Amino acid sequence: MFEGIGLISLxxxxxxxxxxxxxxxxxxKNADGQRTLALVGAVLGFLVTVPLWTGFDKTTxxxxxxxxxxxxxxxxxxxxxxxxxxxxxxxxxxxxTTILVVLAGWxxxxxxxxxxxxxxxxxxxxxxxxxxxxDGVLFYVFFEAMLIPLYLIIGIWGGPNRVYAAIKFFLYTxxxxxxxxxxxxxxFFQSGGSFEILAWHKVPLAMTAQILLFVAFFFAFAxxxxxxxxxTWLPDAHxxxxxxxxxxxxxxxxxxxxxxxxxxxxxxVPDAAHELTWLVVTLSLIAVVYIGLVALVQxxxxxxxxxxxxxxxxxxxxxxFLFNPLGIEGGLIQMISHGFISAAMFLCVGVMYDRVHSRQxxxxxxxxxxMPRFAAFFMLFAMANAGLxxxxxxxxxxxxxxxxxxxxxxxxxxxxxxxIFGAAYTLWxxxxxxxxxxxxxxxxxxxxxxxxxxxxLGLLALCVLGMGLYPLPxxxxxxxxxxxxxxxxxxxxxxx
Length: 496
Hints:
Elements: H1 7-23, H2 31-47, H3 50-54, E1 64-72, E2 77-83, H4 88-104, H5 113-132, H6 136-145, H7 147-157, H8 162-190, H9 197-200, H10 207-224, H11 233-240, H12 243-268, H13 270-275, H14 277-296, H15 301-320, H16 325-356, H17 367-370, H18 372-385, H19 392-407, H20 409-434, H21 441-444, H22 451-469, H23 472-476, H24 479-490
Antiparallel strand pairs: 1-2
Helix pairs in contact: 1-2, 1-5, 2-4, 2-5, 4-5, 4-12, 4-16, 5-6, 5-7, 5-12, 6-8, 7-8, 8-10, 8-11, 10-12, 11-15, 12-15, 12-16, 14-15, 14-20, 15-16, 15-19, 15-20, 16-18, 16-19, 16-22, 18-20, 18-22, 19-20, 19-22
């Protein structure tokens, strides 16, 4: 049995097939051809996702572009795909980011070019599978499989401590996922033998069962976000990962964890979510305030941006557990915006690292004198990271703060401190790196960004400004799905 036209399948399998074709081209003697093939695969992978946006019906909360095929009939496991207003934007964000990652590694990666490019393309397809899966086992397979390419990217092309960082990343995320597997099996039996995620939304569960399921899902997704205190793998992974790995990790992989909250925790165990709101809000506010202070004392640019990511994702989880449209839509907008801004910030650090081979803030100073075009781009992204109005960084944070005010003024007050801390650590870093007299011979010899780097940063600049000035196209696709989710969560599912 099969239905639909297969757009989501194309979004999953076009980049994966392109990645496998690149692997089949052999060694580094054909590196230019491999890069070109990777770019073609990434562009095609993005183009097949565009109809998901242009053909999307904003008036309904139902799953769209659905596909259904038998997979393991014996256990009632299906290849079931579909998107709604919550998942669809992230498939486009992921496919768009893949193009940027391929371009960013064009000249920098000289060893094992085929394997490097193929890893990103295969991972892109697997992540699209996570956002498109409507079957519990299919989701779990994609959720776990997407770790493997990133593990290899960090472990092979990373820095001096890459093996330690890769193993730490893998163990943290794998251990969290094992609890989720137990939860999926429990829901399979409770639902009468179905792995359909949407069917699980209707299963009546007692409070004890809901809380246990909440804990299982929470561990799996909180590690991916990552929430405090299970965040320690992220700075290590970022520091050791190559620039492309950091971009995908920050822009996309973290979003998978936050997406799990909306697809599993809120609709499947709504009563437990209400009961344990205090826990999630507390951890989110610690991430916003405490991690913001931790970012202030970093001397490594990548580490600073990594901690900044944890603080910004704290906003996302806070927004989701406000249980109002402003909070959830603000969290979703923050996820998309953070995808653009964190990708841009890591690419900016990568541009400097490729020239000076240092990420230490103290090794720079006066970069604006030798790289004026780069300094202008970096300024825009730094301001967006600090939440400047008219950039995408402001929109989501402002919506979450407004949503928090409706629930608890002090939550909103603490959340709003991120605008102060974010400006402090971002602009402090920018000032020391970019402004002032030329600090050393390395900076004096820097050349400004080339046309490839200009294209990558320019595309992200358009996204950051476009979303900041006109966020409506992003919010309107979410309205129906978010309202439906809130309506569902408001109705108790307790069974006594």
